[in-house]
Design a protein that fits this description.
The chain is an alpha+beta fold. It is built from 2 helices and 5 strands, in the order βαββαββ. The longest helix has 15 residues, at 32-46. The chain starts with a strand and ends in a 12-residue tail after the last strand.
Length: 106
């Protein structure tokens, strides 16, 4: 499945003080350190959300994006996620339920 951007203007993970946004005079390039910080902030807020199976980083056109993995399609989660957090784009992918895979003993 292809990751898609989150909806613009979402509330989950949004910064009440106004996060950095790419725009005129601002770089859309997100370095790994900034993306990791944004990932941690969003992961902390989504930790107990039943639709979310994980939050990670993914390569983006210009640097890195925060990637939110969902158990199943959830329009409410997509709507509530910010399009970007602290300058890092937020993308969403439905990956299905998390499952543990155990390697056979050697």
């Amino acid at each position: 499945m292809t990751a898609r951007p989150a909806a613009p203007g979402g509330t989950l993970g949004s910064d009440p003080g106004g996060g950095r946004r790419a725009g005129p005079g601002r770089s859309a390039v997100t370095g790994i350190a900034a993306a990791r910080a944004a990932k941690q902030r969003l992961a902390d807020r989504l930790r107990d959300h039943p639709a979310v199976t994980g939050v990670g980083l993914a390569p983006a056109a210009e640097g890195y994006a925060v990637k939110v993995n969902l158990r199943a399609e959830d329009a409410a989660v997509r709507r509530d996620l910010p399009a970007e957090l602290d300058g890092a784009p937020v993308v969403v992918e439905v990956v299905g339920p998390a499952r543990l895979e155990v390697a056979p003993p050697a």
